[in-house]
Amino acid sequence: MVQQDRRLEVSEAAWRVIVREGLDRTSMRAIAQEMNCTTGVVTHYFRNKQELILFALHQVTERLQGLMQVAIANVSGIDRLVAMLSSFLPVDQERQAILRVWVAFLGYAVGRDALMAEHQQSAGQLRQVMIQELATLQQQGVIRPDVEPESEANVLLALVNGVSLDTLVQAQRLSAEQQQATLQRYVDQLRPNEMTSSTPR
Questions:
Q1: CATH class of the 1-47 domain in this structure
Q2: Minimal CB count within 10 Å: which of 61, 95, 170, 196?
């Protein structure tokens, strides 16, 4: 347990360096400086930069899943889908940091097949959760029967990714309320026609 806690501490320091400096400038020495310790302490828990970065990526997935579980607690119907998607949006400092680490890793993984495979596996875990949720809502009659959960999961994640990236690249970015409204507007279109027509706009 102590070993795992220490690895998490090193990973947290790596997150701070990645968010502040970017992955190219993230080194074992920089992380050690962030922790006010020697490089040897960092390499005791992670053999090299790539191993540490992979651990940080897995932490991204775990944190997103944790945020998602909190968001959908005591929420039912199509509101669960909105809550699930909203948990990915960078509307606070924690999720902004998650987004920056995710984007940094993606850029670093381009041209590195092993790292890209890890990135795809991580993204695939979130996609499977989304597919299951869509299938469940469809069985409950909450979303249209013609919706294909597997392809719709891709669309929804692409929408969330696009809205999230917009906050990094646009000077006039969408507010948290606008981000939420964008998701709500799209998800409302998944309702059965009779439910859509009666939904207030």
A1: mainly alpha
A2: 170
